[in-house]
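Hi L., both proteins are below.
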Amino acid sequence: MTGGGEARAEITAQEKVQQALVQAAIKIKALKEPKDGITVLQQEIRTLNTQYPQGCQLTLDPSFITKSIVVEKCKVMDSKMRPLWLLFEVPYSRILFFIRSFFAYFAFV
């Protein structure tokens, strides 16, 4: 993509956040002991939050601008696919996302 410096920076930030979440999901799914999933998820989210870009739009729904992920509220759902339950902090509210494979569902909290 040539030009569009500001848009490129925003898309790069979105992609960075998404890739970090995908890598966390892969690590969690590979665990032999499902109970360790929450610990790994919280470690990955804490690491991501230290580098989280302020005002980052979500790739899954760019209409939401996020500040961070609420570590204490995140969890790994009990099912074969090991979906992630993520709570994003936004400037005006909190938004709950749970991710299963490549589908996402959200609700205001």
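That was the first. Here is the second:
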Amino acid sequence: MANLTGLFPGAHPPPMRTKRGRVEYKWYIRWSPAWQEKRAACLAAAGARCACGREATHAHHLTYERLGNEWPEDLEALCKACHDDIHTCPVCEGRMRWAEIESGLLMCYPCAVETEG
């Protein structure tokens, strides 16, 4: 996503929407105060600890079904290493990308490998 900060001095850019009218993921994660609150609540609920015992700094979406209206159980507190592991292709070790937000599948496009997110 392009850096739009200079176009909106003193504020964040307006919400961006997908063709289906949903909030665009990158905008939501970067600019939404609602996301920042949900992320903070997720980390606090986990005591700022990942399941591995390290400090949790990431709130991972277990589903994108309710993106923008997440329930607490839609999020998991993770450390950076565990979050990176979830998004790493088991075949080529490249970065997995969401094939479709609604599908709940991660896709490694070079390998055409699908896994559940």
